[in-house]
C-alpha cells in the first residue's frame, strides 16, 4: 500500500479525535477521542517506519533495527496512553460518585 493512504487514514482518525474532544461534554467520550488521536500517531509511526525500512534495505542488521525502533516507540506510547486512561477513568469514577454526572461543564462550575 502506498504511504499516502496511511497518511489519509491517520489524518481522518486524528481529525475525528480532535472534533470529538472539542465538541463532546461526556468525559468518557473525550478520553476515547484522545486515545483515537494517539492511535493515529502510532499508525503514522509504523507506516513511516515501514517506508523507511523499504528504502534502506541494505543489510539484514539495518533492516532489523529500523523496524524495531519505531515499534518500540509505539509500544511506549501505548503504555503511556494506558496509564493516562487509568488515571483519567479513576478521576471520572470519583467525579461520578460525588456529583452523579460525567458532564465536563459541571467541573467549571466547581471552580467558583
Task: List descriptors.
0% strand, elongated, mainly alpha, single chain, 112 residues, Helix Hairpins
Question: Regions with pLDDT < 50 over 5+ consecutive residues?
Answer: none
Cα end-to-end separation:
54 Å
- From the alpha carbons, calculate the radius of gyration and give it in angstroms: 19 Å
The portion of residues forming beta strands comes to under 5%
What would you call the structural class?
Answer: mainly alpha
Q: CATH class, anyone?
A: Mainly Alpha
**Helical stretch tally:** 4
Structural domain count? 1
SS elements, strand count: 0
- Which term fits the overall shape? elongated
Stated plainly, the CATH topology is called Helix Hairpins
Along the chain, the helix and strand elements come as: HHHH
Amino acid at each position: 500500500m502506498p504511504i499516502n493512504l496511511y497518511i489519509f487514514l491517520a489524518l481522518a482518525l486524528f481529525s475525528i479525535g480532535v472534533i470529538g474532544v472539542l465538541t463532546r461534554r461526556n468525559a468518557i467520550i473525550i478520553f476515547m477521542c484522545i486515545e483515537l488521536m494517539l492511535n493515529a500517531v502510532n499508525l503514522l509511526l509504523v507506516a513511516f517506519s515501514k517506508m523507511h525500512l523499504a528504502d534502506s534495505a541494505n543489510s539484514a542488521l539495518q533492516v532489523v533495527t529500523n523496524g524495531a525502533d519505531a515499534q518500540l516507540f509505539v509500544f511506549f506510547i501505548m503504555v503511556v496512553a494506558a496509564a493516562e486512561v487509568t488515571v483519567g477513568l479513576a478521576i471520572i469514577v470519583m467525579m461520578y460518585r460525588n456529583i452523579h454526572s460525567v458532564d465536563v461543564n459541571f467541573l467549571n462550575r466547581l471552580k467558583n
